[in-house]
Amino acid sequence: MTRDKIDLEQITSLSKELFHQYYSGELELWFSCLDKDSVYLGTGEPILFGKDVIIEHFKHCQGKISRIVQEEYFPIALDTSTAQVCGEIIVENPEGRTYQAITHFTMVYRNTGGCLKLIHQHNSYEYIRSQKNDIIKLDLNSTQFVRDLLLKQPSAKRMPVRSGTQTLFLNPLTIMYVQSLGKKTEIVGIDRVISCNSPLGQLAKELPNIFYPLRRGYLVNTLYIVAIRRFEAELISGICLPIPALTYTKVKKDFLETIGGKAQQT
User: Cα-flanking dihedrals φ and ψ of residue 253, to 5°?
Assistant: First the structure.
């Protein structure tokens, strides 16, 4: 088997084109570059072995569009015929969602007989607020929804939350969701966002059972869910939280049972 020297400029350009095609909803170029023995790893996804398995897993993503707002690519030669491109891409929904997604990636290429193939890809995802310091803004209908929701619920015991050097006392019913940020936790409420000193696991023990583990590192208050679709849940504020493709069916079933059950009891 003949392996040609790999061109770092070429694989950098190819990686950029692959991501631009992918986030414009076109996956065919990415699929065509996969080696038959390619390996894919991604946050919240199973380890995928082989071109056919990867294509089968991701074919549902075709047509799903995001806008790239920032990107960086760093090529590294591994040997004469193999190299990798590492980098970071930030995308946002073209409809102006509240969230941006950061993808940290590593792509390994091999040049065999003049044919450049992607043999390994690792994507790590992180979701952030586009305007992190802004107070969440609710329209009149959303405000009425929250007011009615809180009036119908039994009074909840306030929970102490350490934030920096202060202790806050929060009504858990006013929390829309919490997400893990390393050893800390971000609490997103109906009127503010709070950085909590405690890890998510510890905070989860104090939250009521209306909080659901939407994905790794996230607990969402099911009272605020207004829609669920492939592959995200929308909250009353308009925020959309991602749902892993692997667990989407189970999450949807759980939501229907949980929210449906609550609706029948009210």
Answer: -60, -45
* pLDDT tens digits along 173-208: 888 899 887 778 889 887 778 888 888 888 888 898
d(C-alpha 28, C-alpha 15), whole Å: 14
Please check whether residue 152 is in contact with residue 132, taking contact to mean a CB–CB distance below 8 angstroms.
no
Provide the token pair at 215: 């994905």
Topology, domain 8-129: Nuclear Transport Factor 2; Chain: A, (3.10.450)
Question: Phi/psi of residue 108, each to 5°?
Answer: -110, 130
**Chain segment 99-135, per-residue pLDDT in tens:** 677 888 999 999 877 889 999 999 887 766 554 444 4
If DSSP codes are grouped into helix, strand and coil, which group holds residue 51? helix
Q: Report yes or no: 149 and 225 within 8 Å, Cβ to Cβ.
A: no
Cα(77)–Cα(212) distance, rounded to whole angstroms?
Answer: 44
Neighbours of 135 (CB within 10 A): 11
| Ranges for all domains in the chain classified under CATH 3.10.450.50 | 8-129
The C-alpha atoms of residue 203 and residue 209 are separated, in whole angstroms, by: 12
- Quick: pLDDT tens for 38-87: 999 887 677 899 999 999 988 887 777 788 888 899 999 988 889 999 99
- For residue 164 the two structure tokens come to 């920096």
Q: Which residues belong to CATH 2.40.50.1020 in the chain? A: 140-265
CB 154 within 8 A of CB 170: no
CATH fold of 140-265, please?
OB fold (Dihydrolipoamide Acetyltransferase, E2P) (2.40.50)
